[in-house]
Amino acid sequence: MVMRKRLKNLIIFCGAFFIFAPLFVFAQENSFVLKEKQALDLVSIIRKYPLTDAQRDFYDQSIYDADSEYSIKTGAVMLVKQAILQSELDYWLVKMPAEFSKRFIKAVYKIVPAITVGDFSGIIGLIEKYTVEQANKYIDKWMKENKVQIGSGIGKYAFPSFKNNQQVINIPYIIVYSPTGVNKAKIVVEFYSQKPIEPPESRGSAEGNMDWATKTSWPKDRWITSKYNKNNKIEPFIVRVKGQVVKDKYGNFSWDKTVEVKLQQPSVEVEFGEAVPEIDQSDIILSNIQANQSQGFIKDKINEIKKKAQGIIDQVKNFFAIFKPTAQISSFVEPTGDSSPTPEVGKLPDLGGREDQQEDLKNLAQQSQEIADQAEQVVSEPENATTTYEDLLKIKADLEQAIKEKQAELDRLLALASLETPLPTGQATSTDSTSSPQAICSQATTQEPDFDKVIFNEVTWMGSTKSSSDEWIELKNISVKPIDLNGWQIFNKTQGLKIFFTTTTIVSPGGFFLLERTDDNTVPKIKADRIYTGALANIDEMLYLVNSNCVLQDKIKATPYWPEGDNTTKETMERNQFYGWQTSSVVGGTPKAKNSIGKSKPSSGSGSSSGSSKVVEVGLQQQNSTSTASSTEQATTTDSTSTSTGSVQATSSPQVLIVEIQITDGSSTHDFIKLFNQSTSTVVSLSGWQLKKKTSSLNSSLKPNTWRYRISPYEQAKNRK
Fold first, then answer.
1. 493 partner at 20 to 30 Å CA-CA among 208, 212, 412, 672?
2. What is the mean pLDDT of the chain?
3. Angle made by CA atoms 611, 612, 618, in degrees to the nearest 5
């Protein structure tokens, strides 16, 4: 009996070990990760010193040497210090990471030579050749052997620029920590500004304590007139801090001030013109300790595999379309999912005796469809499903391997066919979209646009100084994820302009997509992403952007005139920083580039309608708050239907802005006010908020239908009368 009991306990112990052992071993794999307290403590002492001292020293140097880089260096250090001072400072490695992306690993190894001795010249090239799994094994082994630890996170800073434009910047960082003895270590920390920044006004004197959240003291005036001023923005930069630290018995860090390192006090370096690593939190996949967050990330990766599978199908379709464009190739792939009807398998075009390749391509497309269906099934699975994090990782690995094999097979078949290779995945076709057999999503014309993924960013409805036919349309991805335009549509009021996206066409976050009319000469020296036919009317026009589910994403109304743009000067119509419309200050616009600061006054022909105007001042205020919670916008509207975005006077760093107002003299049910949550990470609840209207005789509160709104980051909400 005793023996049976012991045996039973042994079996239970062994079972528990095998259940939890993988997690235990897994958790030990990346023991080189700095703990959150350690990383944030190191960032804190860096902010206090040497960044604050470097800010003051660079400032002083700029006074004596106006033509030097010191003014812009002061600005860069100030921005990093302000980002650290904000309460939104995040640490990415709070939980144990299961995997890093290769770009994150390469960023780490670029820092390593600054902290330890060795030949690292070939490591970056080696990482390029590795798979992600191999690269992670390499960094894990190297870190342990060299007793090096790493940490990473991000500082976020929202502020009005010196031109009074609201800015939200992210400053990610990487820490490399190398022990040199008991409770001593060398550290190198790099802070990255990945995009040009319109900096804040210089506030506060350079004397006294500069380590305040409200003190942005830097030699802006010197920078403005220097050769380092690039379009009124501080160019992307790297701020690097090096030094040696000691740790006390409570685990707190301070700079090592012992005699042997007296001549090696912490230093600050600022680099411009170098390649800035574009890392973000998506480069770090967390273990199942944080499954709720990491499962969503893995599903995003699986969804990307689905898009790759669809891309292979599109390439096969393009292959047949190029060989015989009149062939009916849209139905030769049979979806395996239950949710879609199974079309009849169409007859493939004659390949001149290459029937084997024809059949192989058909099978390849069918297998890719099966991969896409499997990926779709996984990503659409409810959060409370039984699939574990480890299951998702295995599914991801299996699908990645499968899609890799299918792409290799496609390349082989295309080579055997000895025909022109079809357009690569992600590139739109250049054919006339009006010949497409697709149907227009006319039901979308009655919808209000979602305005949360891809929008119209700039429209040249007036043509160019060379020809009125030189029209072009620019789209922009305003979301934080890549968007596939496959299945999307663009059409105008008369449907004389129809554009159908029928292949995988990826627009990266913040990326532009340029559509040129008739040919690629419409915009000189800039390559079009898509050529289309069909003209825009100068008056009484509508333009619609619809997604693959026939949901309206954006629309432009010219009723009867376009909101902005100048038909005389050929200055384009473009979005301003609050996504309202403005007339570009650049003749010919800014195709595939950031929009201009806007023309200060619309001139004749800009599309403004006639009639007497009325001014309404509207403010948004949080209940029980004495300060304006977002902004006050002076909106000028006309007697006809119009949208306007006037100047904004921000009294504090706002989270929610009034970005669009429509007031009509017809039915009051068509009036609306559009709000925008400019935060990159915070969901704002409007419960208890008020809209305040100021007239000539009194202040009154507008009465919205409901305030049960929660506005996600970079989301817009609209309230109607």
1. 672
2. 75
3. 120
